[in-house]
Design brief:
By secondary structure, the chain is an alpha+beta fold. It has 13 helices and 17 strands. Strands 11, 12, 13, 14, 15, 16 and 17 form a seven-stranded mixed sheet that branches. A four-stranded mixed sheet has the order 1-10-9-8, covered by helices on one side. Strand 4 and strand 5 form a beta hairpin. The radius of gyration is 25 Å and the shape is globular. The two termini are 34 Å apart.
């Protein structure tokens, strides 16, 4: 392949942005000084390890519209945000002094009135509002997750008010996007983060004493080639979403990164058997979640705790989903499905074999393996499953036309744990939100229990009980991303899918 040369320093400093118009009242007049200094002292002679990572110079470090994950990770190193998300999906304050709410629907964000940007401009709530509006704007990477916001306004110079479309007690988890000064999106004025761009724009330099003092940004225009370029020794580490597609012997080391991507079994609530909640519960009880996580995903996945990610701090006292063949068989027996044919499969009242059509996208080999594993597990309770692995377009057509009994799919759940796009009945759906509840049983009781959970009046255990009684879909596992790293890298990774360099300031040589 043709290796891509590092672009010149001037191009490295040009950022690609989309315009963003502030919709609220204008803030008090003040001087905006551009261009912005990066806060790095060029006379700093500290040593330390130099890390090489991929970076698309043509895309740049746009705070809101960076599209590639590699560049978003660079943004996470360079910019500061309102909060920092921890590995258990709790948060800690960064540029905010406090977050306050009484009902989880109206939130007040407070800043320290003593903070100033690197050029001396005072940090105010107008900057906060502007940053939120830019993050919500069309084309922003964060726009879809911030769709829960109904309005944002300035209360006073140190306080912003955010009103949500519905209560969400984990809303602060979404405030991880960069904060910049008012009307500087085209050339951001911001607080330097863990690292700053070096003078030539091809490196990041640490803003504190740590093991990795310098990060070299190696030009990468095709992110699909990163694993190949790792083999060629171009980088020290890269992110790779599908670790099962790689062989560690050919790329060096491979470490899992926790994520909030859920693989689930969808059930067609309008089909003859999956229409019944007890049948859906029997299906859920027959699945061996640990086996799928450990063997099908080779430990690059974890079994859910009830509904949610097992890493989520609210789940620490909740048991993981587990296989329960006795309960599965009892549920089916109680439904009167006791007859068996000559092959041992259950039959209906007319003696016809109970058979389910499972559709799965064949473009994901691991999901096809999950589908086959589910088929084998349901056979253990006398239910035949016919796996139909099809192209993505055929898969989506099947979901839209409800031409299936069950299906395997994967969805990324935002860090506020919002599953409304999966369980909201049609009559309560909001305009502009993309719902994906194909065939999932509509339940007002479940929906209002979820609203209570997000509003703080219903506990996680109580909501989990309502979910289990309805079983609208079956959470199978939460998959992991991965980091591919050079065997010569003297550090171990403790990052996450949302911040590969989560703990970089704490890295110590092994």
């Amino acid at each position: 392949m043709k290796f891509i040369k590092i672009l010149s320093a001037l191009l490295a400093l040009l950022l690609v942005f989309c315009g963003c118009e502030a919709k609220a009242d204008e803030p008090p007049d003040r001087e905006i000084i551009l261009p912005v200094t990066d806060g790095h002292d060029p006379n700093d002679q500290r040593g330390g390890f130099t890390l090489r990572i991929p970076y698309d110079y043509s895309e740049g470090a746009s705070p809101y519209t960076a599209k590639s994950r590699a560049n978003r990770y660079v943004c996470g190193l360079v910019y500061r945000s309102m909060v920092t998300l921890k590995s258990d999906y709790s948060y800690e304050l960064d540029l905010l002094s406090d977050i306050y709410t009484e009902d989880n629907a109206v939130w007040y964000l407070y800043i320290d009135d003593g903070l100033s940007f690197p050029n001396g401009t005072q940090f105010t709530a107008y900057d906060l509002r502007y940053s939120i509006q830019c993050a919500m704007a069309e084309g922003s990477y964060y726009a879809s997750s911030l769709g829960v916001i109904n309005s944002v306004s300035v209360v006073n110079a140190t306080c912003c008010k955010i009103t949500l479309k519905y209560a969400s007690k984990y809303f602060p988890n979404l405030l991880t996007f960069p904060v910049i000064s008012y009307e500087t999106e085209n050339r951001p004025l911001f607080f330097p983060g863990r690292y700053s761009f070096g003078e030539d724009g091809t490196t990041l330099v640490a803003n504190s004493d740590c093991a990795v003092q310098k990060i070299e940004l190696v030009s990468a225009e095709d992110m699909e080639l990163l694993s190949y370029e790792m083999r060629m020794g171009t980088y020290d580490c890269v992110y790779w979403q599908d670790p099962l597609s790689l062989g560690t012997s050919s790329v060096g080391g491979l470490a899992g990164l926790q994520s909030n991507r859920m693989v689930y079994l969808g059930l067609n609530s309008s089909a003859p058997f999956t229409y019944y909640a007890d049948f859906r519960k029997a299906v859920a009880a027959a699945i061996d979640y640990s086996y799928i996580s450990s063997y099908v995903y080779n430990n690059f996945a974890s079994a859910p705790r009830s509904i949610f990610n097992p890493d989520f701090y609210e789940m620490q006292y909740v048991s993981k989903r587990s296989l329960d063949l006795m309960s599965a068989n009892l549920l089916l027996d109680d439904m009167g499905l006791t007859g068996r044919d000559s092959d041992g499969y259950r039959t209906n009242s007319r003696g016809k074999r109970i058979s389910l059509d499972l559709v799965v996208c064949n473009e994901s080999p691991v999901k096809v393996n999950v589908a086959n594993a589910v088929a084998e597990m349901l056979a253990e309770i006398g239910i035949e499953v016919k796996v139909n692995a099809v192209s993505y377009s055929a898969f989506m057509l099947a979901l839209e036309k409800y031409s299936y009994d069950i299906y395997i799919a994967e969805v990324r759940i935002n860090s506020d744990m919002d599953i409304s796009k999966l369980i909201t009945p049609y009559e309560y759906q909001l305009d502009g939100v993309e719902y994906i509840n194909y065939g999932i049983a509509p339940s007002e009781n479940l929906y209002f229990s979820w609203l209570g959970f997000m509003g703080g009046s219903v506990s996680a255990t109580e909501f989990g009980s309502v979910f289990e009684s309805v079983m609208p879909y079956v959470p199978i596992c939460y998959t992991k991303g991965s980091v591919i790293f050079s065997r010569d890298l003297p550090f171990s990774f403790g990052g996450t899918d949302f911040d590969m360099f989560y703990d970089i300031l704490d890295w110590k040589k092994q």
